[in-house]
């Protein structure tokens, strides 16, 4: 582990700012383990983040990094990918950042099938900005903006990504760490828009407001509910109650945006209209 920290984390940036028991460090660790597993050169990786607890990850990592504006990681990452198509571009974002403020960017990046790997840290809440509910907060959950429970129906962000045109969609949790490394690595290798929903424990904001106990209780919550897709599909509707599928949920092939764009450039350079 120390070798990984020395190799992939910027000197002098740790300790991180995340609260005790926060799962964000596990996801950040999973990203570097996935890069390490694929034996990618650090200079061939770019990490682009938005704003929020999740998005602090880019500041700790020793890759090419951009810490952008709230909700705007995807347009910035799109520019990075089009300018430097050789780069493996990883976007770190949160549930509020990606699906509320950046929701429009999210669906259009998926629709274009641009080769970005989006690791969405889903802590079910706006942690950094004060505990407001997000589009992924489960209905009836408490938040500072819903002290009696939200009546909003949440997105299933994996279905949203799939419906919008993403070609690789996976989910894991901070309990299922090896799976998380594996699906991030697969997402990086996939040529197209990849979404990895990483369900993370936020004991200090979401957990505290919803009386979920400490980090170990929240990890147990993940362990008890995450079911590998193949087993989940065999369950009855009754058995599925309160559970969610994990693993690779959807994968298909489609033309990739930056490659298609390169073809247009080549055609125009040859003088074609
Ligand atoms: Fe982690 Fe939640 Fe604290 Fe943010 S508020 S650092 S997500 S525990
Ligand atoms: Mg969040």
Structure overview:
This protein is an alpha/beta fold and about 270 residues long. The chain has a single domain, classed as Thiamin diphosphate (ThDP)-binding fold, Pyr/PP domains (Rossmann fold, 3-Layer(aba) Sandwich). It is about 40% helix and about 15% strand. The protein has 13 helices and eight strands. The protein has an eight-stranded mixed beta sheet, with helices on both faces. Helix 8 links the parallel strand 5 and strand 6. The radius of gyration is 18 Å and the shape is globular. The mean pLDDT is about 95. The site of magnesium ion (MG) has 9 residues, from helix 5.
Number of strands: 8
Give the ligands present. iron/sulfur cluster, magnesium ion
Shape: globular
Q: Would you tell me the structural class of the helices and strands? A: alpha/beta
Largest sheet: 8 strands, mixed
CATH superfamily grouping: Thiamin diphosphate (ThDP)-binding fold, Pyr/PP domains
Ends distance? 54 Å
State the name of the first-level CATH class.
Answer: Alpha Beta
Predict the CATH topology: Rossmann fold
Please indicate the percent range of residues in DSSP E strands (runs of 2 or more). Answer: 15-25%
Domains counted in the coordinates: how many? 1
What strand line-up does the widest sheet have?
2-1-3-4-6-5-8-7
Average of the residue pLDDT scores: 96
Radius of gyration: 18 Å
Keywords: Oxidoreductase
Protein name: 2-oxoglutarate ferredoxin oxidoreductase subunit beta
InterPro entries: 2-oxoacid:Fd_oxidoreductase, THDP-binding, TPP_enzyme_TPP-bd
Pfam family, one: TPP_enzyme_C
